[in-house]
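TODO from last week: model tRNA-t(6)A37 methylthiotransferase.
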Amino acid sequence: MPAACEAVLEDIEDIVSAEDLKPHDRQFVRKNVFPKVRKRNSQKSVQADDEPPSDSIIPGVQKIWIRTWGCSHNNSDGEYMAGQLAAYGYKITDNSAEADLWLLNSCTVKNPAEDHFRNSIKKAQEGKKKVVLAGCVPQAQPRQEYLKGLSIIGVQQIDRVVEVVEETIKGHSVRLLGQKKDNGKRLGGARLDLPKIRKNPLIEIISINTGCLNACTYCKTKHARGDLASYPIEELVDRAKQSFQEGVCEIWLTSEDTGAYGRDIGTDLPTLLWKLVEVIPEGAMLRLGMTNPPYILEHLEEMAKILNHPRVYAFLHIPVQSASDSVLMDMKREYCVADFKQVVDFLKEKVPGITIATDIICGFPGETDEDFLETMKLVELYRFPSLFINQFYPRPGTPAAKMPQVPAAVKKQRTKDLSQLFHSYNPYDHKVGERQRVLVTEESFDSNYYVAHNPFYEQVLVPKDPLLMGKMVEVNIYEAGKHFMKGQPVSDARVHTASITRPLAKGEVSGLTEEFRRAAQNGTKWKAQPSAEIPVKTQLSSWMALQLPWQQEGGGLKILSVSLALLAVLVMFYYRGMKTE
């Protein structure tokens, strides 16, 4: 097996194996090359030449285990990478022990997430597994010591995951970290029509943009995802249409800041949402992802109308992070507490029953007891049904990491105090006895119930009746907990099915075009039936040059050209040997 290349490579085409001849060596041995004469009647000789060497590797047949940490944007990237690999022939497995390669898709928001990522790398290496790293950690800091010598695929390069995996399996270390651009303008990322394997066949996660317009002093994700880059509305609508044609009944729109969508391409979020609701079938729902206060302020009237639409969840995730203006200023959040309250108060008035989720950081550098008390008062005022409480972790390379830190014990106590306040109230008790319309999409963690959501994206547990999955039904609420309600389906209620199309099976690849199916079939046939006229090793090199349809923008032309040139030379030697006979 070739020795691993330790150098950081700009692209796949830059790979040179340790066993490959260098230009000087190739010139030196040229005069000693003689064509081998193959006798027609020596079948034994032909077979010996055609046997692959003992260390040969056939890419596209290995088992791959994929682990993703972090946000729904990261999960979407993981689904796309799984889909491309499966479409190319790799087997995606849930069993890490049996996998030949681990694809680890990381999150850089908090220290614990990176710690899990680092530990997984160590475990893979101890188990002699090949490793490919993805996500925000290696994109933001690719030269960290524990990433040395490992293959990395950047967050905007996920459409080239097959190439990176192939080369890693062969023993090379490859790093693709560049940005996608069109005429110098940064694009949102890889194409949206790539094959993917949805973690939940009923839920489509669509990244509407990448990056953001802010520069929060605590945020490491900005280092990885960069500035705002939005996908065109037409591409997003097409992706939604395709999803519904594949049996999807719920769409999640995600990004680092959905509220900023379109500002870089001359449009805005409400314009996108109105286009999307036109294609959502009855019985299906759309959920909008996180938006920061500054950008949603500009569109409050339109957003209220959209969130009242029957096929859009009346739900919005608006991180406040702190109720202290001085802390928000140190965070560079670009809004004040009054702005946040204006957004929440307006939406609560115009969208009755709306669910507002928010985030709070406890113990940000410089946060005083008085600052934290203001945050506690804000939570007490709004009693958020969904609250993400985060103890502050200084992330390397961020301005906040250089600020004077709040003592660890104080951060821990504030996190505990806020958690106790959050658990002191039950937001759903008053809903017991209500009749609600819910969409059933998944199974509960304990496998005892199916999980549904009502129009406010509040979690409702229903009986595990397979006939309910993917359906919109009416239930009577008979019990409420801190994070959920329980509902019993109403026998005489109408059941809505979002799409007449059967949902894809779990693990089935979405978005395979006929163009790709033909290419994949041809490639498989070529690999499975090697010609007796050409050595197997040469055929494998040529087969690997086959480019996937979504990669045929020129990235593989060098490999294809070199392979064809090598093939021509071998054929020439073969016919020269025939003449010698």
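Done. The CA atoms of residues 63 and 91 lie 5 Å apart.
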